[in-house]
Each structure stands twice: as C-alpha cells, then as structure tokens.
Amino acid sequence: MAAALAVAALAIGADQPVGFRGPGEAPVTVMVFSDFESFPCSRSAAVLGAVQQENRDVRLIFKHAPAASNPNAMLAHEAALAAGAQGKFWEMHDVLFANQQHLTRADLVGYAKQIGLNLPAFEQALDRHTYLPVIESDLAEAKGLGVTTTPTFFVNGRRLVGPQGYAALEAVIASVLAGVPPSQRVPEEIVASGPTQQINLENAPTRGLASAPVSLVEFSDFECPFCAQATPVVKEVLAVYPTQVRFAFKNYPLPMHKESPLAHEAALAAGAQGKFWEMHDLVFSTQDKLSRDDLIAKANQLGLDVPRLTRDLDSHRFKLQVDADRQEGNRLGVDGTPFFFINGHAISGAVGLPEFKQLIDAALKEVNAPKAK
Predict the structure, then answer these.
(1) CA dihedral for 217, 222, 226, 232, sign (positive or negative)
(2) Cis before residue 187, ω within 30 degrees of 0?
(3) 62 and 19 Cβ atoms separated by less than 8 Å
(4) What is the DSSP string of 231-243?
(5) How far apart are CA 92 and CA 76, in angstroms?
(6) I want to staple 337 with a disulfide (CB 3.0 to 4.6 A). Which of 135, 221, 313, 333 is the partner?
C-alpha cells in the first residue's frame, strides 16, 4: 500500500496534509481519485461524506485527477489546494462539487470570498499555479496505479471503479473492519473491488464455459445507454478470455426507465425459445424502440414463435424472475447500471477493456494462488 497512500507534502496542521479527513489512526483508509467537474465524482463525494458521518473508523484521502476533457477542472483543483493552504480545503471541496457548472476563475474567486479566504493570497496562488505540481503528482500516481476512470476508490488497497452507492461502499468497509485474516487479504498488486458476494445464477442467461474460473456477472438495464455501451466491451472480454471467463446477465431495470421491465421480460421469453442473446443484442442496438409492439416486431425479426412470445408478455410469465433479480441486486448493493461482479467483487459503472483485463487477471491470480495449508 505504500504507493497507493503516497501524499502531497502540503500541511494544513501539525499532523494532517491537505485532502485528508478523519483520524490518522483509523483502521480503514478510503482514497479517492476525483475530478471536481465530473458529475459521478460529485455524487460519490456526497456518499463519502455520509459514510464518514456514520463511521469514525474511516479516514479519507482525496486525490486530484482532473480530466483533460473538462476545461475548468484543473484550475478548480488548484483552487481547492489554495483553499487548503488556508485551512479550508473541505469547505472549498464542497462548494466546488455543489457548483460544477460554474468553475471559471471568477467563480472560484467568488467561492473563496464566500468561505472567508484571504483573497490576495488565493488569487496569487491561482495566477502562479503554485499547487499545480501537487495535482501533476497525483495524476502521475493515478497513472501508476492504472486509474483511468473517476471516481476510482482504494479501500485499504481494494479498488472500486466508478461511482459507489452507500450500501456498496459500506459493505467493503464492513469487511475490512470485520478483520479479514492476512491470508485472505488482497495483496497490493491485486485489484479486487470489494467483499465477495454470493450471487444466484440458477436462472441467469450465461455465455462461456461453466467450468471457467472467473465469473463476470452484470446487473443491467435494457433502457440504460451506459449498459448498451458496455455490451461490446463484454464481448471483447469474452473473446480475450474464451475459457477463463463465464458471463452471466442479471435483470435490473431502473425505476425511471418505464419500458425497460417489459423489455427484460421479452428477452427472457426469447430465451425460453433459445434466443436470449439475439434478443439481448437487438434490444440494446435499438433502445429507442421498446414498446410492446416494438418487442413483438423484434421477435418476428428473430424468427421466434411470435404468438408464444406475445402470450408470455401479456401474462408476464417472466416478471417474477425480473423482480427477483432486482431484489437480489438491491441486497448486493447495486445502485445503478451497469453494475458488475468479478468473482463476487463489485465494480460499479461502465469500464473499458483495459480495466476489465486488469481485474480479471487479478482474479485469475487469486484463484491460482497456492492455498494456505
């Protein structure tokens, strides 16, 4: 963990650098690589705040990872550090996340005035880019750790990619506090992302060998654009790991997507006729057409027994399975889609092939590690 816990030497007090919050002796350290202009990071900041309010055993370390594609992010991070030099990093942190659409230099100066900073010192720090090296150091650290998405968390070295819900983050923290034996802890180079969860795959559509050592489970929503974007990535994963990864699909239609539940029922009805994956791919490729009539048209396009599928839809034959998957997802801490589990370890949000490879290779290494006698 030495590399993962490196910090900038910018002190705000006798024993705590800028970007740290919580007792130094806390048994759990949550380090987050974040971007002030990223909405998922803003959401995660609120979750982290709630976690720390409820749990005094957690120390938070904030790492600066402004994306080059966010034009105002870099100066906003400099502003946070300039505020931190005056003892008000977290006050500025909260204001920046609350005003993500307004991060110009003039806005930043206004926030500095709002939280009572010494304005000449603050503006001088911005103009001279005094704290740019701190941000560059954090970006270099992020690159060294393989961080390509914000937010990315490390909870005592365990990686979680993408925005995390309260339940998912608390589950990881609880597993650490429970005192995982050293033989079962994840080594630094392993990047598993949370406590192993038992997932019921009895009725789940799957791809890959049943004997594969790595299980990749996705809780997905047919009306979610991010799930559609994840679909070709999953196919790439299966192509790279044809015998090592088994993929399972779980239904998790989100409440705001009104047509999604019936689309999930249609896919399962197609599966009863041996064409789940064909319907899966067709639905994701035409997400703007998910009405009952659209789904029946897709069934006809795939050469299914249309009267049979229509009866399944009208009787809601597969609604119980969809509801059961959603309830299971809630129990596991799923709070958005896509949400993946690799051998039971949670990964929230869409990730790319490099991140999947890193996590799957880690899982394979874990599976193949010699068992303690």
Answers:
(1) positive
(2) no
(3) yes
(4) HHHHHHHHHHSTT
(5) 9
(6) 221
Q: How is the beta sheet containing 58-64 ordered, strand by strand?
A: 20-21, 58-64, 28-34, 152-155, 158-161
What is the DSSP code string of 211-223? T-SEEEEEEE-TT
Residue ranges of the domains in the chain?
20-175, 206-367
pLDDT reported for residue 181: 39
**Helix, strand or coil, per DSSP, at residue 69:** coil
Give dist(CA 176, CA 205) in Å, integer.
33
Most confident stretch, 27-41, 148-162, 280-294, 345-359 = 280-294
Q: In degrees rounded to 5, what are phi and psi of residue 10?
A: -120, 100
Residues of the chain with pLDDT > 70, as a percent, come to 88
| Fold of the domain built from segment(s) 20-175 | Glutaredoxin (3.40.30)
Class of domain 206-367: alpha beta
Q: Over the chain, what is the mean pLDDT?
A: 85
Contact yes or no for 61/20 (Cβ under 8 A): yes
321 neighbors 268 (Cβ within 8 angstroms): yes
Each as own residue / partner, the long-range contacts of residues 4-10 (CB below 8 Å, 24 or more positions apart, any chain) are: 4/31, 4/145, 4/154, 4/157, 4/188, 5/29, 5/31, 5/61, 6/141, 7/61, 8/134, 8/137, 8/138, 10/81, 10/84, 10/85, 10/131, 10/134
Report whether pLDDT(353) > 50. yes
Q: End-to-end CA distance of the chain: give it in Å, rounded.
A: 26
Helix, coil or strand: residue 72: coil
Side-chain-facing half-sphere of 269: CA atoms under 13 Å: 29
The answer, yes or no, to whether residue 85 has pLDDT greater than 80, is yes
Check for a shared fold between 20-175 and 206-367: yes
Q: Is the pLDDT of residue 13 over 60?
A: no
Non-local (6+) Cβ contacts of 148 within 8 A are 352, 354, 355
> Where do we find the tokens 């720390």?
52
Asked which of 58-72, 112-126, 204-218, 329-343 is least confident by mean pLDDT, the reply is: 329-343
Per-residue pLDDT tens digits for 165-215: 777 777 777 767 765 433 333 332 223 344 456 788 989 999 999 899 999
